[in-house]
Each structure stands twice: as C-alpha cells, then as structure tokens.
Amino acid sequence: MNGSGGVVSTAEDLARWLIVHSNGGAAADGTRLVSESALDTLHTPGPAGGDYAMGWDLDRSGDRVTRIHHGGALFTASAEQILLPGEGGEPGYGIAVAFNSAGALGAEQMTIIEGLVEIVEGGGQPAAPVRVTAISDAAMAVLIAAALVVGALRVRRAGAWARRRARRSAPLLVLTLAPRLVPVALCLLLPAIAGLVMGARDVTWEAAWYGWPALVVWAVVAAAASAAVLAARVLHLVRERRSPAPPDATRPPAPRPTPAT
C-alpha cells in the first residue's frame, strides 16, 4: 500500500473495518481499536466544511448524515465501502464490495452497489440497470465505422484535393495538412490523457485497453485513418507540384504577329 491508496484487501477485511466504524471504534469481538472521539473526528469534515471528512465522503439529508462512504479503483480492480448510520439509536449497516474489474465508466459496479444499498434500506428489488457500458461501446462502434468510411473516402479523393491546392505556397499547405496530425498525437498520448483523467495516475497501454477497449480501438483507427489521408494527400501534392502547370484557360491567347508587308 501507499499513502494515497493502493491497499490490497478483500471484501471480508473491508467488512471488519466497517464494523469498527459502525461500532464506536470496537471490533466485532468487543476489542477496542480506536476511541469514539477519534472515530467522530474521522467522520467530521475539517474547518473548511463541505462533505469530505478524513478519507470519507458524507451524504446528507438536511442536517442528518445518511451515508458515509469512500471508494477507489485501479484499472484492474475497484472497491466501495459504505456506512449507513442508524436512526433513533438503532444500529446502522455497513456494505463492503470488492470487484476484480474496473471499467472506465464504472457503471456496472455502481449499479451493484446502489442495488445493495436499496436492499439493505428495505427498498425491495432494485430496478433493472441501464446498460451504460453497452450503450457507450455501441456509440464507439459507430465512431469507429465513421472513421473508417470517412478516411477511405478522403483517401480516394486525395488526387482531386491535391489538384485544387497544388499551386498554393508551401507554408499554407503545411497549415492545411497539420490538423491531420491531431488524431495521431491524441492516440499516442492516450495513456497520458487517461492518467490525467484518472487523477494523475500512471496508465499503460495495457491498462487503457483493460479499462475501455472500444475507446482504444477508436483512437487507433481514427489515427490510422487520418495518417492514411495525410500520406495520400502529400503523395498527390508532390506529384502535382512536379508536373508542369496547365495553361490558364482564363487568360486570352497571345496575339499572333502580323506579317510585314
């Protein structure tokens, strides 16, 4: 483990930890591990206020705290721990869930967690979840197909594109072609971007693929399509600029000299 996370544990160990927090600082067998005052401090936001205590998020309904929770995720695992305080002196509940997966959106994990909370609170059978990951993957499939189709069409039309622009200055052509490098750069930087989104974590290509394969496929396909368009346009531009310029049809022909009399 390290100071900011990365604890290797199990759902059973997390449950024991939650018993201490919901039992005034004592373990299930009565052994005191932390004082009640220290426990209250852990569950109380700092001087700045807000709803974040010492490693715990607080959900409120008016002045009453309805949920004390905290979770975390790596790209290959995720977990959530929740305390549901009791009312009127009644004991509360603790829920600990550990997953051996962690998708980029975390939708399925949160659906399971909220379903367990609903069952514990007497809400009955949870509603059928919205298949967020399936919907997002379907959207990515559409984007992948669009990148392939648009890329193929632009490669096919690269010759006509080059003929219309072949006589422009070199700096202007570079500015025209430069945007084709943006998808390539974004693809190469995908792990770094994912790391920033995930809270400045170190993300490898393997981890990015594990977290959201459809996104990685789309980034690679979009980059490859853009690179193919760029290569085709540059190739046709070189050919057009090396060929002699066609006669200007808008310019009238030069007058023929009249024979001397």
UniProtKB/TrEMBL annotation:
Signal peptide range in chain numbering: none
InterPro entries: AmpC-like, Beta-lactam-related, Beta-lactam/transpept-like
Record-linked SUPFAM superfamilies: beta-lactamase/transpeptidase-like (SSF56601)
TM ranges: 138-156, 177-198, 210-232
Keywords: Membrane, Transmembrane, Transmembrane helix
Entry-linked Pfam families: Beta-lactamase
Domain Beta-lactamase-related: 3-104
Domain of life: Bacteria
PANTHER family: BETA-LACTAMASE-RELATED DOMAIN-CONTAINING PROTEIN (PTHR46825:SF15), D-ALANYL-D-ALANINE-CARBOXYPEPTIDASE/ENDOPEPTIDASE AMPH (PTHR46825)
Protein name: Beta-lactamase-related domain-containing protein
UniProt organism field: Streptomonospora nanhaiensis
